What does this fold into?
Amino acid sequence: MNIVFFGSPATAIVPLKALKDASHMITLVVTQPDRPSGRGKRLTLSPVKKFALKHNIPVFQPNRIRKDPLAIEKLQAAAPDLNIVVAYGQFLPDSIIYFPRYYSLNIHYSLLPKYRGASPVQWAILNGEKSTGVTIFELNAKIDEGLILAQKESDIFPGETAAELESRLTDIGTELLLDTIKKIDRISPQKQDHSLATYAPLIKKEDGRIDWKWSAEKIENQIRAFTPWPSSFCYYDNKRIKIIKGQMVSSSGHKGKPGEILVIKNQGINICCGNGSLFYIELLQPENKKSMSAYAFSLGVRIKEGDIFS
It folds into this structure.
C-alpha cells in the first residue's frame, strides 16, 4: 500500500519503521520544519526527518500545512492509498484528510472517546486510572472525534511513568495499526459515543508545580505523569527542586503541615501532605545541579525535620 506518513517526534519512528519493514511503500514523509535549538540556535531536524533522509524517503516540511498551496501537489505526486498521522503537530485540512482512497488514520493513546486531546497518557496517570489503551481512528475536522477502526486496552502498571507508558502504548499501537491496515477492507468503522467523551488538554510547564495540600497519592501520580516533561517541582529556600522519584507512604494519620519534612533517613525524605498523608522523596534535582538522592541533598543543604518544602 502507498502511504504518506505525517509525524515528527522520536515516538513516531516506531510505526514509521514498522510500516516500511512490512513492505508498505512510504511515498512521502510530512514533518515539522527544522527548528533552532541549543545555545547556538542551530537548525535541528525532527527525528522523523532524520529517519526519512537515512532511508531516502522524500520529505515535505510546510510551516502551516492548512495554508500551503504545495501541500495538495505533494500529495497528488505521492499518490497515497492511505495517510498515517502520528504526533505530526499540525491540523490537516479536509482536502488532505480525505484525499487517499482509505482516508487518514491516527494512532491515539487512549480508548476514545476518553481522553481526547494532546496529552492522553499524562492525564490518564494524573487521574489515577488503572488502565488505558490505544485507538486507531479516522481523522476528521474535529479533534479525536472520528470513526473508530480498532482499539486495544492495556493496564497502567504501578509506578509507571508517562514516558514508560507511552513507549509501551507505541508498541501496542504499532501492532494494532499494521493489523488494521491488513483488514481495512473488512472493517466497519464505528461512531464514537460523544456523551462519554473526556478531555486531555495540553500540559503546560507550570502545571508541574506540586501543591503539598494534595494527597500523597495525587502527588505521586503527578510526578509519574510529568516524567520526563514538564517534570514536577517545589521550592526550598526559594530555590526550585525537581522531584524525580517518590511514592506515597500512607494515606492518612500523620500530623504536620503540608510540605513539612517529618523524617530524614538514608532512604529518603518523608513529607507531610494533605489529609495527613505521607509522601516519600527518593530522587530529586536541585536547581542548576545534577539529580541526586534525597538524602544526599539533605546533607548538602543541611535541611532538618520541621523544615518546609513550599
Q: What stands out?
A: Residues 2-196 form a domain with the Rossmann fold fold (CATH 3.40.50.170). The longest strand covers residues 239-250.
